[in-house]
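Form 12-C: Joint structure prediction
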Amino acid sequence: MNRTKREINYGMFILPALLFYVLFCVYPFVTMFYYSVTDYSVSKQTNLDYVGLRNYIEIWDNDLLLYGIKNSIVYALLMTVFQTAFGILLAVALDKKLKTRNILRSVFFLPAVFSPLVIGFLWNYLMSTSDFGLINQGLTSIGLSKINFLGDSDLALYSVVFTQLWQWTGWAMVIFLANLQSISKDYYEAAEIDGATASHQFWKITLPLLQPSVSVVAITAMIGGLKVFDIIMSLTNGGPGNATETIMTAFIKTSFSEGFYGYGAAFGVVFFVAVLLLTMLLMQFLRKWGEKIA
Amino acid sequence: MKRFKALWITLLILAFGVAGCGTSKNNATNSATADTSASVSQSASPSESQSASPAEKVKIRMAYWNKESTVQNLLDLIKQKLPNIELEYQFIENSQYDNIVGTQLAAGSGPDIISIGPPAASQYSKLGYLADLSTLADRFNEAGTSVYSVDGKLVALPGISWFEGIYYNKEIFAKYGLKAPTTFEEELQLHEDLKKNGIKPQAMGAKSFEPMMKSSMGLIMNEFLSLPENKDFDVKYGKGEITLEGNWNAGLEKWSELIKRGYLTKDMLGIDYDQALDEFATGKAAMWESGPWALDTIKQKNPNIQLDMFPFYGSKPGPGWLIGGPGVGFSANANSKHLDAVMQVMDLIATTDGQKAFWENNQGGSSYLKGADFEMPAEFDGVKETFKAGNVYAPWNNWGGNVSGVIQDYGKSLQELLGGKSDVSSVLKATDKQTARIIKLNP
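Section 2 - Result
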């Protein structure tokens, strides 16, 4: 009896947070499913009618959303692979006994403390093709031609990815460093006695034992990549054309600029399912990798 | 045990707090439309409030997406001329304006005076949210009333117009013996002459979808939309009865000469509005398309710049056209509890005094009120004839509601055209597709 009473009393501690969570997170999320099958829009906010799967069917007829889905998947995959890879390389390099390692760790981590909007406006000027664009000014001063980083539709998405790798690789590095420091030095000593090279040590000891942090970084990068919004708005606003539209920019434009809330809700449901599936696939892959090395 | 008692007390307070939030929300909703006796009773003595008389102030609310300073003189005038009315000004941030006001109106409340754009005016009017202002329609020019009329009724008073033309640097023009064009062909030649002299003819922040969208429509207004047989084209287009493909092709092909001849270049897709403004203000480019709102910034960057503006031209000489329209309309909430007071304010706005007060905080535009002629800054001397002819128009204002996606798609398709990834026909077909989708989704 005392135990139950105690559990209830402790449970009460989380009630305020739970209340707000349900009110501002669970409730809007659940209503999204309801609105996705109605004709809810800026022109019709009361007496909503059930429209079946009409909103879901319309998604596949909207070029903006289709470009958004394609670009988001490319962006998320590139971010997941390169942020993880560069983060590991940087962490391994800065785990060595270098005199400058603390300074270098701070330097590489520093971009992560800024808002993506600040980073966006900064790179917008750096990559500009106008005479004020620092990078292109440098290129032309050494006799090279300008590169239209953000205005060339074949290049723009990759330019955005580059800025985000520059910003977030340092953050991934910190996660990997924490993991690296938990790996016992005994493994390396034993490997050295057995004659293993540095490369062998990395592939056979370091990388497998980094599996827990790789899971964290990869899944965070994948989810963050799929819902990228702020950096796109500040760097390209989805352009040129639809070259850098992502799921979230397309979602905001469709739902709020055009005012078709029911349609936007349907897209939200599709987005939720897509993120769920991709994350599950990635987790499955990482789990299998973990089991293999266990 | 004391700790748990404290926890229970905290929870009780929280529960009352949440309940309190609900109550205060209701109060807030009610206060938006509540009888003003409540507000009077707060300031007046009980005996005064009991003897409700016409001398009591009626409190009404006005919502706008611009800061109060942009209507300060108008608010002062209302205070002075209508002492029986207390106007509460509510600023709502632009990006959320339509969502907030739309939701309030759907709930049967909302501001008494609604600042509104043409697409929203069309939507709200069809939903019965806006009062009929047709009794004031005769005081305004048709160019202003046409965009705020729905089914023959005036639903908002047109405010001061916004407009965009092409700024040019008079010093650069004088240096090379050039003058402002009078046709599109002369404009092309002007670009060529500047280019030959090593001057970038035109700065353009094509990273945004807007400048090419407006520039091309400027030519199409001259070549196609101003023809008598196309008078109803935009209204028909908004209803899905007609398409751009097959109608705008010739005009857009002609405009695309700016791209084909290398005056608008791919590198402009990497330049935004601010950077283009910098290029023009610092004399690195001779021309730049924009409006009066940019003038202060240009002069801050280069106080010595000498500039003027010319409108968009077509093949034939004439006054040309400016892209623009009523920047904001003032509408009355049909469900307002104080419609009489609201109509008094509307009546005041529809006078020369009212228009002048609003214009004083929004200089550069012109009034649609008949007989209201305010002195334009000298930097717009080159477009005086265009204003006199009443040639200020934005086609999408007559395309009905939800047009932001359509004009964005059109502008983005033009970015693809500039980037060499599309052609004129594809641009128009993509825009038509978006329009058809929006018409289909509208209830």
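Section 3 - Comments
Chain B is about 45% helix and 15% strand. Chain B touches chain A through 53 residues (CB under 8 Å).
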